[in-house]
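Postdoc handover notes: sequence design on the structure in folder B. Input tokens:
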């Protein structure tokens, strides 16, 4: 099936309240353009330099999401255009995003990454670490970032029950952190292999790459 076919099929399957991020990492500009022509406007990349290059080459109404682990020294290259940063996992990184956003007189939307997987290799914060950050004076003085929700990645396992339990635990944290004063709106969870489970467990934003663009040769 073509990229256009894949997109249409996916969109027919997901509820209206769930936002689709088309993960285009490693894929050429022509593939992204095909998805763009089919109506897709939100794309996710996991390397800042690659996202910057694609942003320069592609239509300017595309919303670019940074979904990868952040290198703080590269935040400055995307601060003028990035629409949402998914994988923020430290106060230091928030501080850098705030600083770079201020230079461009912008408020950058961010998601805090929660570690829900068993695997050591996955990044992310614990619930307590998130609470500590959100309650800190330093964080509350940042005027150029807006934390709008959470992001998480489930374990890479065939055990569907484990994946479901991990998504469910993330949704619990999401609901708990959402207070009347500060409503969290975005729960980014679910990829090609597990987005259906993620939606059942409360996801509002899925990040899908290979089911749209085909398998990748490298990550
Ligand atoms: C690559 C990637 C995805 C998409 O993965 P697929 O399995 O190709 O859908 C989603 N989220 C993150 C953080 C990724 O790095």
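Designed sequence:
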């Amino acid at each position: 099936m073509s990229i256009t076919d894949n997109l249409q099929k996916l969109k027919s399957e997901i509820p209206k309240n769930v936002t689709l991020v088309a993960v285009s990492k490693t894929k050429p500009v022509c593939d992204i353009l095909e998805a763009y022509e089919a109506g897709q406007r939100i794309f996710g990349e996991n390397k800042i330099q690659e996202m910057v290059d694609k942003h320069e080459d592609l239509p300017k109404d595309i919303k670019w999401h940074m979904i990868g682990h952040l290198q703080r020294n590269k935040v400055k290259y995307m601060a003028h255009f990035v629409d949402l940063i998914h994988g923020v996992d430290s106060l230091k990184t928030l501080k850098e995003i705030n600083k770079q956003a201020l230079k461009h007189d912008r408020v950058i939307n961010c998601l805090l990454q929660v570690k829900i997987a068993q695997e050591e290799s996955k990044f992310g914060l614990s619930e307590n670490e998130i609470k500590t950050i959100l309650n800190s004076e330093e964080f509350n003085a940042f005027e150029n970032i807006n934390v709008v929700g959470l992001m998480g990645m489930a374990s890479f396992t065939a055990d569907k029950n484990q994946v479901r339990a991990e998504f469910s635990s993330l949704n619990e944290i999401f609901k708990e952190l959402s207070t009347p004063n500060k409503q969290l709106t975005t729960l980014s969870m679910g990829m090609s292999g597990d987005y259906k489970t993620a939606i059942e467990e409360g996801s509002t934003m899925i990040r899908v790459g290979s089911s749209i663009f085909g398998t990748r040769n490298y990550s």
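Context for whoever picks this up: The chain has ten helices and eight strands. Don't rerun without checking with the PI first.
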